[in-house]
Amino acid sequence: MRTHTKETQATLTPSDALKYLHEGNYRFVNNLKSNRNLLQQVNETRDGQFPFATILSCIDSRTSAELVFDQGLGDIFSIRIAGNIINEDILGSMEFACKIAGSKLIVVLGHSKCGAIKGACDNVQLGNLSTLLNKIQPSVYFEREIVEDRTSSNGEFVNNVAHIQVKRSVEAIIERSMILREMIAEKKIGVIGAFYDVETGTVEFMEDTFMFGEIKHVYLAVDGELTTGKETEETTAATAG
To answer: Is 60 helix (H, G, I), strand (E, B) or coil?
Structure first.
């Protein structure tokens, strides 16, 4: 596999980047790892890097984005934090990756059996960890499907909350970064949520979260179900007001 250059990066679209990640995960799941000379890539990237995608994922040791998407040195920016939450530092990193370094796609990658999600489900209180888990608590609240055993011992509940957390993080990117929001609206970059299964190695891309050229929002409907809707002039005005 060849290392990305400034020229190859410039010709890529968000759809191309998404295709590369799809293909990379397919290789990973089927044990078809690309043949790379990593030392050669070290040499080829010594004067600069031109990653085609930016992946926000959890710190979980089983979810290394470079591995699950079969990418090499200089291919992707990897941002990792427990529970794939969004804060100003994460947003700043994404803004650098896209606005300055030319990345074409942002992926928020959640995963099954996430320890941070389980901690939030159980309302764990532990030093600075509590502050982080508090940022996940709204996802626990928005999960309305499970009525009984809303704890980490219920795998279905944990899985539902983890999916909601991905959608909330995608939403937070467009709500809290005007730079990234404008780049999406201007079709310079795309953003999408995804979910990694630690049992199979498969990544599910959440197509309803994909944004490229139009801004969409995730709402909590009256009946408690999360729905995705396109932004309209009315919703823009309501948000601004």
So the answer is: coil
What pLDDT score does 227 carry?
A: 56
Give the C-alpha separation, 181 to 196, whole Å: 25
* Extents of the domains making up the chain: 6-215
Query: What one-character-per-residue DSSP string does 71-98 give?
Result: --TTTEEEEE-GGG---HHHHHHHHIII
- Res 4: pLDDT: 75
Alpha-carbon span 52 to 43, nearest angstrom? 19
| Cα–Cα distance for residue pair 154/220, rounded to 1 Å | 23
**pTM value surpassing 0.85:** yes
- Which residue, 90, 104, 107, 13, is CA-closest to 51? 104
Q: How many CB atoms within 10 Å of residue 130?
A: 13
| Fold assignment, 6-215 | Beta-carbonic Anhydrase; Chain A (3.40.1050)
pLDDT digits (tens, 9 = 90+) for 166-195: 999 999 999 999 999 999 999 999 999 999
Cβ atoms within 10 A of the Cβ of 126, count? 10
Q: Is 24 exposed, middle or buried (0-12, 13-18, 19+ CB in 10 A)?
A: buried
Low-confidence ranges of the chain (pLDDT < 50): 220-224, 232-241
DSSP 23-43: HHHHHHHTT------HHHHHH
Q: How far apart are the C-alpha atoms of 239 and 146, rounded to whole Å?
A: 30
